[in-house]
Amino acid sequence: MMLTAQDWLAKIHMLPLKRRVRIMNVCGGHERSITMAGIRNALPKTVELIAGPGCPVCICPEEDVYQAIQLALHADVILVAFGDMLRVPVNMSKREVRSLEQAKANGADIRPVASPREAVKIAQENPLRSVVFFAAGFETTTAPVAAMLLEGVPDNLFVLLSGRRTWPAVAMLLDSDTPAFDGLIAPGHVSTVMGPEEWLFVVEKHSIPAAVSGFMPVSLLAAMYSVLRQLLEGKPFLDNCYPELVRPGGNPSAKAQIAQALNDADANWRGIGVIPASGFVLSPRFGSHDARIRFPDFDLAGRKRAGQMPHGCECASVVLGKINPNQCKIYGRSCTPKSPIGPCMVSDEGACRIWWAGGVRNNATVSTEDAQTFVVE
Amino acid sequence: MQIVEIDGFNAHCVAKGIGREVSLFMLQDESIEIGDCVMVHVGYAIQKMSELEARSAWEVYDEMLALEAKGA
Q1: B2-71 domain in CATH 2.30.30.140?
Q2: Which residue on chain B is closest to A229 by alpha carbon?
């Protein structure tokens, strides 16, 4: 018998939860569904849902965004990037160009794309110009970049890759002294590509319950029920509540293509630091398409706050699930979707932007209300 | 999205009346036919969708317990 979202919710309310339980998700799509469906308010008060590292734009190294801006301004290239990247600010003074959007307004040839295939098309249509594809993303976006390279790209297409793996950030959180959560909702599409087994370490090494979830409330609530029941029964295992897409081993073609086109590397996460083996770089086979090899490094020695989050912005703590978006002191005050300061307010997958879109307007640092209380307009 | 046309690794797919060109390059280990549904991310099909529904291993566990109880 197929259970509905209401059924799962009723089952969750029947669980004898006696202490506060924190469940983390690590996917912007999950956070969006949770917020838009009002799942936080529908759950028992003892269950706290935490948005974790689920936004690749938010942690894209500041120096990579800076490099993309400088390439677009000074290297006579067409720069293409996923639309989310265009408004991400770097740490420059207000008199200088601080985002790809501003660089475009200053005459740089910058074109937003929704797919690596569009980057290829732009390169084919402009054979006499160099095209740099600034590709930031987690495994679901990086795998298509690998596919694009293996399928064959024009000589004038170069990739500035800021690809990241999701699980090393969760491993880093769990290896810290005070893990921020008691259960994990594992990402659906990352698991679709890479296989759910990537998340076994959460259960096996840390004895923390985990469940892979899809993006509909019914799948998310099934995963939350599973995690809570695993906790209550003291039987942590990796559940798969997204079987329509997530298969053992993931997508073998995609994984083979990643292995052929890319290598693992230690990688910087904006405001967080270097996480071992959390990044992708182009393999030497594709060195002739690597923008980091083809173009000079524009980074400026001694640039203030290089690599960091903007001044006053607590996106790094939001990304790591240490605070809720509205516990950042600039949330909804100086930082709004209209004039974002931090990348979490820029990206559609950023927790701050999602909470704002979900109607959360109170800043918990200036409110007497509990940070988990939502004021919805 | 549902596949309506296939040409090599390229497929024309539709969802809710909207058509898109989609790459099947990442599904080389799957047998793909017109009419199949695929999950698409940034223009690439990342998996063929099955008709399974969201569920938890606890459902199976509880069903087994109920059967055992009946048997006893």
Answers
A1: yes
A2: B58
